Amino acid sequence: MTRADRIKALHAAAKERILVLDGAWGVMIQRCDLSEEDFRGERFREHSHPQKGNNDLLILTRPDIIADLHDQYYGAGADISETNTFSSTTIGQADYGLEDAVWDLNFEGAKIAREVADRWTEREPHKPRFVAGSMGPTNRTLSISPDVNDPGFRAVSFDEVYEAYKQQARALHEGGVDLFLVETIFDTLNAKAAIKAILDLQDEGYEALPLWISGTITDRSGRTLSGQTAEAFWNSVRHAKPFAIGLNCALGADLMRPHIADIARVADTLVAAFPNAGLPNAMGQYDEEPHQTACHLHEWAESGLVNILGGCCGTTPDHIKHVAEAVAGVKPRAIPERPTAMRLSGLEPFEIAS
Question: What is the C-alpha separation between 205 and 307, in angstroms, rounded?
Answer without folding.
Answer: 30
